Amino acid sequence: MKPFLVILGGPNLALLGLREPEIYGSTTWVELEEMCSGWAKDLGIRISFLQTDSEGELVSQIGKWGSVADGLILNAAAYTHTSIAVRDAVSAVSSPVVELHLTNPAAREDFRKRNLLEDVAVAGIRGFGVQGYRLAMDGLVQILSGVGKD
Ligand code: DQA
């Protein structure tokens, strides 16, 4: 059975490409999904690609997929800095969660330096733009195959 990863995006990521392109780049969320589908094909894995602006919906999606999928790639966007509920959802699920950001929040405004997810995620990818998704998929496949356990 091919590994199955769920890629979850939080608030405002649907606006990718239009939203502050000087910070987040010009690739749209739809284009990013197409890129991820291509990388998934190369890696021989299956993915689902989901986005929500709602904190409750994000919590529900983490809970729903967090034991069904082999792993999650989560860009919780602004909820990274604010949401104990999203943190608790990540802690609650059994599948490994890679925490991802397009930018490096630690190098930005002070309010982005608080990260409620980094210590409950198995790994983090930050600051590589949309290429970070390729790195996260590749890394998660390696984690699932046992790399890094010894
Ligand atoms: C982001 C960084 C967050 O601080 C911000 O709120 C976002 C996007 C990123 O991918 O760089 O919405 O998660």
Bound molecules: 1,3,4-trihydroxy-5-OXO-cyclohexanecarboxylic acid
Gap between N and C termini, in Å? 25 Å
Strand content: 15-25%
User: For the largest beta sheet, what order do the strands appear in spatially?
Assistant: 2-1-3-4-5
What is the count of structural domains? 1
- State Rg: 14 Å
Give the overall shape, derived from the CA principal axes: globular
- Count of distinct strands: 5
SSE order, as H and E? EHHEHEHEEH
**CATH homologous superfamily identity:** Dehydroquinase, class II
Notes on the protein architecture:
There is one protein chain. This protein has 150 residues and is of the alpha/beta class. The protein has a single domain (4-144), classed as 3-Layer(aba) Sandwich (Rossmann fold). Helices cover 35% and strands 17% of the residues. It has 5 helices and 5 strands. The chain has helices spanning 21-24, 29-43, 55-65, 84-92, 131-144; strands at 4-9, 46-51, 71-75, 97-101, 123-126. It has a 5-stranded parallel β-sheet with strand order 2-1-3-4-5, sandwiched between helices. Helix 4 links the parallel strand 3 and strand 4. Helix 2 (29-43) runs parallel beside helix 5 and helix 3 (55-65) packs parallel to helix 4. It is globular and about 40 Å long. The two termini are 25 Å apart. The model has no long low-confidence stretch (mean pLDDT 96). The structure holds 1,3,4-trihydroxy-5-OXO-cyclohexanecarboxylic acid. Residues 12, 75, 77-78, 80, 101-103, 105, 112 line the site of 1,3,4-trihydroxy-5-OXO-cyclohexanecarboxylic acid (DQA).
Write the layout of secondary structure elements.
Elements: E1 4-9, H1 21-24, H2 29-43, E2 46-51, H3 55-65, E3 71-75, H4 84-92, E4 97-101, E5 123-126, H5 131-144
Parallel strand pairs: 1-2, 1-3, 3-4, 4-5
The protein binds 1,3,4-trihydroxy-5-OXO-cyclohexanecarboxylic acid.
